[in-house]
Amino acid sequence: MHAMLPHLEPHHFPAIQRRGVSTLQVNIGYYCNQACLHCHVNAGPTRKEMMDHETACEILDFLDASDVDTLDITGGAPELHAEFRFLVTEARRRGMHVMDRCNLTVLELPEMSGIAEFLADNEVEIIASLPCYSSENVDRQRGSGVFDASIKGLQRLNALGYGRAGSARRLNLVFNPIGPVLPPDQEKLTADYRDRLWNDFGIEFNDLFCLANLPIHRFGSTLVSRRQLDDYMELLKSSHQDANLGSVMCRDLISVDWQGYVYDCDFNQMLDLPLGGRDRPRRHITELTGRSLGGEAIAVSGHCYGCTAGQGSSCGGALA
């Protein structure tokens, strides 16, 4: 696996500052039942990193002393981690909006029996990975059999009211390109997804989020090995739109890793790029409890062009 930050630092990105923190994104651990080619986390079945109960409680202490209204839980496959249900239950008890970044196949694992019902009972918004509506493309990117298991997971969620018209249970899908290209127009692709998933499987969903692949960890290392990184970086930089700078997710979000250390976003977390910049010491969530982060500089590098290229890309899809 190639170290990616040295490849990214020569590509200078405009300076930006945080407005505040309305979303706390928590990467609860890197263990996952899948090992997808595009994964910027390098998650997989052999990863052992998992959040402990003490750190989960420290996150709740931070939330109690903040104005954060959204808890965004990611991984790995977050549902497989011991503290997942605790964090969801406690955040909902506090009246917070909770999001789960779900790979769908986890819903079909025997040991995860009842997890879909748990999510529904707690009105958790689900952000579900489905990089295509064809089995060939999904299995090529995410592994054999993933598409069929994903469809079963979506049908299970639909049966619980997720994605249905008039239901408060939101189900959003995520598209990632297979290779080093920009995502297509989100509005048009959403219409294609709706037609294919409904006609072929009777599946409904709320929104489709188109995300660019960032040159980090597994995907970035693959680009280096294939000598495609320079071309991809040139594509991202040449497609940069200044208008997207005001809407990038890090302006209103911070990311916490499984040990409680804080970063400007999940991508910076994977690059081990500390909150505020490489020359700053790592800061723990306990050091930030009760403190305002508005106006602080955000650590940036070449990978950030993945969020501002073309229509833009964030955890909530296209920016433009």
Features:
single chain, nine-stranded mixed beta sheet, 12 helices, TIM Barrel, 12% strand, 320 residues
The order of strands across the largest sheet is: 6-5-4-3-2-1-7-8-9
Give the N-to-C terminal Cα separation.
33 Å
| CATH fold assignment | TIM Barrel
- Largest sheet composition: 9 strands, mixed
Low-confidence regions: none
Shape summary? globular
Q: What series of H and E elements makes up the topology?
A: HEHEHEHEHHEHEHHEEHEHH
Q: Report strand %.
A: 5-15%
What's the CATH architecture?
Alpha-Beta Barrel
CATH superfamily: Aldolase class I
**Class by SSE composition:** alpha/beta
State the CATH class.
Alpha Beta
Proportion of helical residues:
25-40%
**Rg on CA atoms, Å:** 19 Å
Number of helices: 12
Number of strands: 9
* Average pLDDT score: 92
What would you say this structure looks like, in words?
The chain is an alpha/beta fold and 320 residues long. The protein has one domain: TIM Barrel. Helix content is 32%, strand content 12%. The protein has helices spanning 5-8, 53-64, 84-93, 115-121, 135-142, 146-159, 186-201, 217-225, 229-238, 266-270, 285-288, 305-308, and strands at residues 23-27, 70-74, 97-102, 125-129, 171-175, 207-210, 253-256, 261-263, 283-284. Strands 6-5-4-3-2-1-7-8-9 form a nine-stranded mixed beta sheet. Strand 5 (171-175), helix 7 and strand 6 (207-210) form a beta-alpha-beta unit. Helix 2 packs parallel to helix 3 (84-93). The longest helix has 16 residues, at 186-201. The mean pLDDT is 92.
